[in-house]
Amino acid sequence: MRIALRIALAASAALLTLGVAQAQEKTLRIGTEGAYPPFNNLTADGQLVGFDVDIAKALCDEMKVKCTFVAQDWDGIIPALQAGKFDAIIASMSITPERAEKVDFTHKYYNTPPAIVAPKDSDIKGVNKEDLAGKTIGVQAATTHFNYASKTYTDSTVKPYPTAQEYQLDLANGRLDAANDDIVVLQQWLDSPDGACCKLVGAIKPVVEIHGPGAGIAVRKGETDLVNKFNAAIDAIRANGKYKEINDKYFKFDVYGGDS
């Protein structure tokens, strides 16, 4: 009887240990675009790199979970999350009411303003509707920047592109008059040989109703526990210096923005 009891207890302990081990080995799959440097990019050897990727790795370390990364085209990234291809999107996705109808968001992990760039010999002097009247503006499709450009520059032709690299190529080759995107993305391009053609016209004051309060992490609707864990991890890496370490690797200023 005692032998049987000991065997049963040992078996229970083994199952408990296995369960703990499995919990500790949980893998979180992170979806990102891989075409939006310096936030996320796919290298020639197939590695995902960038600010979003480094932040994701730091958050996973803080949450004590293993992370894997999945590259996903931007226009299909939310459907892919909903279909279970990955567990979270960390891809510079702005928090907006429209997207919040489809996914749940953490609070922001960075917030930088949009801007306009144009060829160096352009006569564009500002970023207002009147400044860009009659011009053709390139913008990445299905983004807050595209929504803003479509609603604001109604006297211009707003041309959508699948990726930032594609509108950058057309702008450099004279097929566009201007482009609208995040100021960090645009400035990095301007600082590269590919962006030598162009100049920063100016920053755009964000419209919260369109641009949202910043970029957040998206998860499937109803996964509140995962949202809370990500939020706690974001707060932790902001407090312990890991966020600053990653920030300073890519930027000369704090991309987190204000404390709100």
SSE sequence, one letter per element: HEEEEHEHEHEEEHEHEHEHEHH
Number of domains: 2
* The CATH fourth-level homologous superfamily of the largest domain: Periplasmic binding protein-like II
Poorly predicted tracts of residues: 1-24
CATH architecture name of the largest domain: 3-Layer(aba) Sandwich
Mean pLDDT: 92
**Helix proportion:** 25-40%
- As a percent range, the share of strand residues is 15-25%
Pairing-aware structural class of the strands and helices? alpha/beta
Tally the helices: 10
Assigned CATH class of the largest domain? Alpha Beta
The CATH topology label of the largest domain is D-Maltodextrin-Binding Protein, domain 2
Report Rg. 22 Å
Largest sheet: 5 strands, mixed
Describe the structure.
- It is globular and about 55 Å long.
- The longest helix is centred in the first third of the chain and has 23 residues, at 2-24.
- The protein contains 10 helices and 13 strands.
- The chain folds into 2 domains: 26-111 and 213-250, Periplasmic binding protein-like II (D-Maltodextrin-Binding Protein, domain 2, 3-Layer(aba) Sandwich), CATH 3.40.190; 114-210, Periplasmic binding protein-like II (D-Maltodextrin-Binding Protein, domain 2), CATH 3.40.190.
- It has a 5-stranded mixed sheet. Strands 10-9-11-8-12 form a 5-stranded mixed sheet, sandwiched between helices. A 3-stranded antiparallel sheet has the order 2-3-4, covered by helices on one side.
- It has helices spanning 2-24, 51-63, 77-82, 97-100, 144-152, 164-172, 183-190, 208-211, 224-240, 242-250; strands at residues 27-32, 35-36, 40-42, 48-49, 66-71, 88-94, 103-105, 114-119, 136-140, 157-161, 178-182, 198-203, 215-220.
- With 260 residues, the protein is an alpha/beta fold.
